[in-house]
Amino acid sequence: KNLVATYKGEIDQDYWSKICSRRSFGSGPSNISGWMLGFFPYDRTGEPIKYNSLEPEDIPNGRVAVPFTTDGGLKLKFIAGFVGANQEVLENSNEVVISPVIGWSVIDHVEDEKTHT
After folding, report:
1. Can you give the pLDDT at residue 114?
2. Is this prediction's pTM over 0.70?
3. Could you tell me the residue range of the domain that residue 81 belongs to?
4. Domain check: are 65 and 117 in the same one?
5. CB atoms within 10 A of CB 18
6. Per-residue pLDDT tens for 55-103?
7. Are residues 69 and 117 in the same domain?
8. Higher pLDDT residue, 7 or 77?
9. How crowded is the C-beta side of 15, counted as CA atoms within 13 Å?
10. Which residue has the higher pLDDT, 5 or 30?
11. Are residues 77 and 94 in the same domain?
């Protein structure tokens, strides 16, 4: 509702002020909260987000990686998902729009020491 209203020029400042907030808890980690998290039902590890709060490093990157081995023994990884953003000015208008760029690639499979993937 509010996204469509904003597109029509009816901007609700209160709504947009609650999109994302970052809070620190003493010497512990800082968390992100806000209605933006509704777009992320799962964290980076695939676990459901149970609270309306998330550590920044747990935000999913929008890509999936699947390792595979060719018949010749070559270890590769197939990666697909959101790879960037495209910005353009609409024809006959000064309106600038941003849209996601979705793509895929095949890369060498090098095991990450931190995630072992």
Report:
1. 59
2. no
3. 61-117
4. yes
5. 13
6. 888 888 888 899 999 999 999 999 999 989 999 998 888 888 889 999 9
7. yes
8. 77
9. 9
10. 5
11. yes
Q: What distance lies between CA 106 and its chain's CA centroid?
A: 20
The two three-digit tokens of residue 4, written as one number = 């469509």
| C-beta of residue 40 within 8 angstroms of C-beta of residue 47 | no
Are 75 and 69 within 8 A, CB to CB? yes
* Domain endpoint, select from 37, 60, 83: 60
CA distances (Å), origin 14, targets 59, 71, 103: 24, 57, 35
Two structure tokens written together for 35: 């209605």
Residues 46 and 86 both lie in one domain: no
CA dist 21 → 17, 34, 63, 81, 90 (Å) = 9, 6, 24, 26, 31
